[in-house]
Amino acid sequence: MNKKMFLIFVMLVLATIPLWTPIATVKAIDQQPGLLKPGDIILVHCKNAGIWGTFYWCHAMLYIGNGLIIHSDGDGVHTENLYHELNDLENRFGEIENTAYLRVKSSLNPDISAVISFAQEKEEEGRPYDMWSQFVFPSKQKNPQDPSKPWWGYYCTELIWAAYMESSDDRINIEYTPDYSMIHGLEIYWRTDVLDRVFVTHEDEVPPPPAD
Q: Is residue 81 domain-resident?
């Protein structure tokens, strides 16, 4: 095979590979996606998350099956391919340095279909990202009904918290310190009486809960 034919062959091979494959494939291996089940909560810690990493975990996603997640970010509540989202997070915030998969304990009998349906309904309603409740007046709302209010949307952890609360008549609360204020990723991670840690890349690097 001469040099010209070799270059053509290489170009044809490269053309068949999606641009996101290098990062997505590595993350797929490193983060054990085969362990995921619908309803699982995915938390990620990124190297350069800035303000988004104030509470260690920079983003939270709800796994809904078939390699898909539903979450809320700057584009509002929407469904996304997990690997595409991991790639996007790395492009924006640098290397994903830690990942956790959390699952509501089976003894609590979560209605996973209802959890996912709640989140999907918010996507269908076009719920935006809730910057107000996350940074201006730290709070959370389960199911706000007035589109004219700035807190009509959801931030990432708020969406997942609301989905589990609404689907269980407030029985399943994934917040470590249940109160009116915002819920952040560490509070979800620390709620070990409600959530099992299915997988954590570097458990020893996650900040512990505050001392009593």
A: yes
Query: Does residue 121 lie in a domain region?
Result: yes
DSSP 10-76: HHHHHHTS-TTHHHHHHHHHHT-GGG--TT-EEEEEETT-GGGGTTS--EEEEEEETTEEEEEETTE
Q: What is the DSSP string of 112-141?
A: HHHHHHHHHHHHHTT--B-HIIIIIS----
pTM as predicted? 0.84
What is the total count of domains within the chain?
Answer: 1
Contact between 99 and 200 under an 8 Å Cβ cutoff? The reply is yes
Length of the chain in terms of residues written:
212
4 within domain boundaries? no
Please check whether residue 127 lies inside any domain of the structure.
Answer: yes
Domain with residue 67: its CATH number is 3.90.1720
Side chain identity, residue 55: F
Encode pLDDT of 48-68 as tens digits.
887 766 789 999 999 999 999
Query: What's the CA gap between 76 and 56, in Å, rounded?
Result: 22
Helix (H) or strand (E) holding 7: helix 3-15
**Spatial CB neighbours of 141, under 8 Å, sequence gap ≥ 6:** 133, 151, 158, 162
At 94, the pLDDT band (50, 70, 90 cuts) reads confident
Residues 55, 56, 58, 63: is their CA dihedral positive or negative? negative
Q: What DSSP string runs through 138-199?
A: ----SS---TTSTTSSB-HHHHHHHHHHHHTTT-----SS-SSS---HHHHHH-TTTEEEEE
